[in-house]
Structure to design on (297 residues):
């Protein structure tokens, strides 16, 4: 497939793009800074400028395409570009950039007849991650039906983007899949960070004790590219286990007293439910921090 990937130079993108490249896709990385990966065309684009987005999507994906009779259309857009958290830009800028850029991507996709858009939403939409003070989910495991009523600018922008995506999908009928991505972990971060999480599981409370290996995130994007006909869907994206050594029972007793437990859970099963992604697109994460650190459980 010919894929227009926004934000491919970011923390998640720099792992997902190589994964997709290995699957045989042709990729243009639309970002403010280049990825510099052989086989990927870097294109500097300001996504908050609607004209630049349309122009970028109509351009060749490399000099070799000048030899074709016409520039091919993109088969899909994967939209990961964003201000990735609060406290990087002022709140108003975080909201403006994330919402406007996403609107522009969808409007351009509709105008140019691109049949699929996969976009990065976030675990923060559930209101726990960047809450002021203590915030517990309404129930566990947290699935896609859980209320999304956050109070911070980043998560607000992601909820707004989901509304935008759903509206454009209703208008066009194309496939639009939103990924509520949990805390992205790069391979080197296991040795650097996870011993502390084993020692103090409270460090993972804001992430609902979950994580997503950047390589498994690549698998999820690939599964979405392979799966057609779902219309509009959102998916939680996480690894199958928790990010701490504490058992499910220990986490429930210490952190979720009084929180509804909607079904029986395995001893180290993620509290960030991925059943829907497994059922609808075949997502089956293969990495675990326990293997990386030779940890028990």
């Amino acid at each position: 497939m010919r894929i227009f990937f926004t934000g491919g130079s970011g923390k998640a993108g720099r792992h997902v793009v190589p994964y997709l490249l290995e699957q045989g896709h042709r990729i243009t990385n639309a970002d403010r800074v280049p990825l510099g990966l052989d086989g990927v065309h870097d294109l500097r684009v300001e996504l908050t400028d609607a004209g630049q987005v349309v122009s970028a999507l109509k351009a060749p994906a490399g000099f070799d395409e000048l030899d074709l009779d016409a520039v091919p259309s993109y088969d899909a857009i994967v939209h990961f570009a964003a201000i990735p958290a609060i406290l990087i830009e002022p709140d108003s800028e975080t909201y403006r950039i994330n919402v406007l850029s996403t609107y522009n991507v969808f409007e351009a996709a509709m105008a140019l007849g691109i049949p699929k858009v996969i976009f990065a939403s976030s675990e923060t939409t559930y209101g726990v991650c960047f809450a002021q003070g203590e915030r517990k989910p309404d129930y566990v495991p947290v699935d896609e039906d859980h209320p999304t009523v956050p109070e911070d600018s980043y998560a607000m922008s992601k909820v707004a983007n989901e509304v935008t995506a759903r509206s454009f999908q209703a208008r066009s009928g194309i496939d639009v899949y939103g990924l509520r991505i949990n805390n992205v972990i790069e391979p080197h971060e296991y040795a650097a960070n996870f011993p502390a999480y084993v020692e103090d599981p409270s460090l993972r409370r804001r992430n609902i004790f979950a994580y997503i290996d950047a390589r498994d995130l690549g698998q999820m994007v690939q599964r979405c590219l392979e799966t057609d006909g779902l219309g509009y869907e959102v998916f939680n994206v996480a690894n199958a286990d928790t990010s701490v050594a504490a058992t499910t029972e220990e986490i429930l007793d210490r952190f979720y007293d009084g929180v509804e437990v909607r079904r029986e859970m395995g001893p180290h099963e993620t509290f960030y439910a991925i059943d829907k992604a497994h059922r609808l697109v075949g997502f089956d994460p293969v990495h675990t921090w326990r293997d990386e650190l030779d940890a028990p459980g």
About this structure: The mean pLDDT is 97. The first helix runs from residue 13 to 22. The chain has one domain: 2-187+211-242+271-288. The CA atoms of residues 234 and 284 lie 16 Å apart.
